[in-house]
Amino acid sequence: MRKITYDTSYNSDLIVGSLSSESKTESITDMETSNSSNVKATKKSSTANTNQKLPVICIGGANIDRKLYVKQEISTGTSNPVTSSKTIGGVARNIAENLGRLGEDVTLISVGGDDIEWKEIDLVSSPFMNLEHVAQLEHAATGSYTAVLDQHGDMKIALADMDIFDEITPELLKGNSDILKQAKCIIIDLNCPRETVDFLSHFTMEYNIPFVVIPVSSPKMDRLPSSLESVSWLIVNKDETEAFLDVTIKNMEDWKRAVKSWLELGVKNVIVTNGAEGVILGNENGNFRHYPAVDTPVVVDVTGAGDSFCAAVIHSWIQKKDIDYIIHSGLVNSHKTITSKHTVRQELSAKQIKIDMEEILNEKIS
User: How confident is the model over 15-71, as pLDDT tens digits?
Assistant: First the structure.
């Protein structure tokens, strides 16, 4: 059966700045590259998982995105003229579509209503991912997310109806344990309940499966697993980092300390994004690397920017690209997404992102 879920926010802080050639001269070493998982997984955590032909599994939100574009400066307490659009969204679903367009074999695990909204999601999503493991609930509504964007394309407020995602339970995942054991990578967004995230944290450690955690908003940071030692990648923005670590990031040193704090909690690879300042990546050996963002003078729509960044980073990592390629692919895909009206840009492919990177970096990509 096919089903839906919903997602909350996208990390829209990967937007403006400049991607300098200087950043390409720095290096980071010993990044974790064990992105594999055994065809016949055993219960020994030391067992390598080496079947690269099995799917990437995305778990979390899939929903209807409604966008309201305010025509002039927003006035509170009164009516504001808008234009509107409706698209398919959800953090896990958006990441899954990006990965599918990039050529990965992707399975989505989610929940949704038995309604017309899910049928719309099915129609758009099914060419890029396996939806057989999405559970439909007869008396629940498919998730929805409504964003109000100002005349510059920046989000001013978002309204999320996502109670349905509380049904992404450990029991639901246990019913899909066979395919989970076979995954070469599992990605979860924090629309899922805390107990589900904890379940997957233990599960991925037991079966030695790379585990990627994507926060969706600051209020949901308390859904991170109780132990972060299972987390292969955490891609988190400044606000989410400040909320979870109870810190304030005012400058580069604060930013670096925050990255170090994540690593001290057990995360193997972490990216903390910070708007126009770009991103800092750190690894478990204490290495750091700052990457400026891609300059984007004209922003069409920030929706999906963070999801496109995450997907390109994970895809490039799975393909065992070097660390510069991994981060630049994310920055470039995010940049191209916000210059498009689509949440997932329609021209995306493995070939196209390479062309885009060569164009923006002004160098040949092998």
Answer: 323 333 333 333 333 333 333 333 223 323 333 444 456 899 999 999 998 889 999
| Token pair recorded at residue 54 | 């099995």
Distance in angstroms (rounded) separating the CA atoms of residues 162 and 351: 35
User: Could you give the 3-state DSSP secondary structure of residue 254?
Assistant: helix
Please state the domain count of the chain.
Answer: 1
Chain centre distance of CA 136:
23
**pTM score:** 0.82
CA 327 to CA 280: how far, in whole Å?
A: 10
Distances (CA, A) of 118 to 41, 103, 110, 287, 304: 33, 24, 11, 44, 19
Which pair of structure tokens corresponds to residue 357?
């990177």
Give domain status of residue 14, yes or no: no
44-82 CB burial, b ≥16 within 10 A, e <16: eeeeebeeeebbbbbbbbbbbbbbbbbeeeeeeeeeeee
Whichever domain contains 258, its CATH number is 3.40.1190.20
CA distance 339 to 356: 13
Query: 134 is in which domain, residue-wise?
Result: 21-361
Can you count the helices (H) and strands (E) in the chain?
10, 14
Sheet with 82-89: strands ordered across: 82-89, 63-70, 144-149, 155-161
